Amino acid sequence: MQKNVFGEDLIRCSNQPLTGFYRDGNCHTGQHDAGLHTVCAVVTDAFLEFSKQEGNDLITAVPGYNFPGLKAGDRWCLCVKRWLEAYIAGEAPQVILEATHEKALEFVPLNELVKFAWKKS
């Protein structure tokens, strides 16, 4: 079992929409995941617009890839470097820490991720 940022078993990020590099609902990673889709984020409109401006349109559906397009509130396994870019730009979405892969810690310190911990409202 792959581990989260706390060294515990990684929990599922999302089945609706189905996320993850392997489209298994988890932010698992492996040798073929060059983008390191390891951060389980709760996306916001501001983040989605930021990502689109940076060249990764996550809003528009792409049926050929079974991609429904995302809307605010969806959970999605983001590439850790995209999350970090958004963080630097002040547009980072909240993170579900228990579903974020420990590999993300190679790029973002845990104390910074904790500041963006998603909390049920």
For the structure shown, list the relevant keywords.
3 helices; single chain; Phenylalanyl-tRNA Synthetase, Chain B, domain 1; 121 residues; alpha+beta; 3-stranded antiparallel β-sheet
- Strand line-up across the major sheet: 2-1-3
Helix content: 10-25%
The largest pleated sheet is described as: 3 strands, antiparallel
Shape: globular
What quaternary form is this? single chain
Count the helices. How many? 3
**How many structurally independent domains?**
1
Uncertain parts: none
Topology:
Elements: E1 37-42, H1 45-53, E2 75-79, H2 80-89, E3 94-95, H3 110-114
Antiparallel strand pairs: 1-2, 1-3
Can you describe what's shown?
The protein is an alpha+beta fold. The chain has one domain (1-116): Protein of unknown function DUF2237 (Phenylalanyl-tRNA Synthetase, Chain B, domain 1), CATH 3.30.56.110. Helices cover 20% and strands 11% of the residues. The chain has 3 helices and 3 strands.
